[in-house]
Design goal:
single chain; about 200 residues; alpha/beta; six-stranded mixed sheet; globular
Length: about 200
């Protein structure tokens, strides 16, 4: 052995404060339902100084008793919000407290529209659009990527969904494309998606 072996302390740690997070992450990753608010976004400042306030939202929801009449689905932001050009996008889901059904949202935005160049800026911008009770509902970011939205094509508008988010992972591009098609409902719009892992 090495002459320094007697100076090495061998120890193991069975549990630590972060163990429950790792266990939850492993469990969610194997089932395919990762709640990223419980991972990297809780109180973590990104490079632009944006902080998620999920803890405050949870505390506010627990301290406020909302009734069915407090929720106004007619005031929810549109299910699909797209900005022309090549922009990052996020796919988000909330569990509607009134109907108990999942509501899905796709949002792409330029840095000037959402306050920064990161997927987290788009997520924060989307979250800010929830009012009338829904601002207290946990909104899960299910992934992201990029959307190319070409509006001046000779064959009509072209939308392509692809890529991934370093922060939130790859979005379900097939679902995002279906939501966009359903929202636009226009024969002159071509919506495609690419599931390649090498596109950012």
């Amino acid at each position: 052995g090495s002459p320094r072996d007697d100076r090495t302390i061998h120890a193991s740690l069975d549990r630590a404060w972060w163990t429950p997070f790792l266990e939850a992450y492993s469990s969610d990753a194997s089932s395919g339902t990762i709640d990223y608010h419980l991972r990297s976004d809780l109180g973590v400042a990104d490079r632009q100084g944006t902080r998620y306030s999920h803890d405050a939202v949870v505390e506010q929801a627990e301290s406020t008793s909302l009734t069915r009449d407090d929720y106004r689905p007619d005031l929810l932001p549109p299910a699909v919000q797209l900005s022309p050009g090549r922009n990052k996008y996020i796919l988000a889901k909330l569990q509607d407290p009134e109907t108990h059904k999942a509501r899905w949202f796709v949002k792409s935005a330029s840095p000037s529209e959402c306050g920064g160049p990161y997927h987290a800026n788009i997520a924060e911008d989307l979250k800010d659009g929830f009012t009338s009770g829904y601002e207290q509902v946990d909104i899960k970011i299910m992934g992201g990527g990029r959307i190319d939205y070409i509006t001046e094509s000779s064959v009509g508008d072209m939308i392509r969904v692809y890529g991934f988010s370093y922060r939130f992972g790859k979005g379900d591009h097939e679902r995002a494309a279906a939501l966009i098609r359903e929202s636009l409902g226009d024969e002159n719009v071509s919506v495609t998606y690419d599931l390649s892992d090498d596109l950012y």
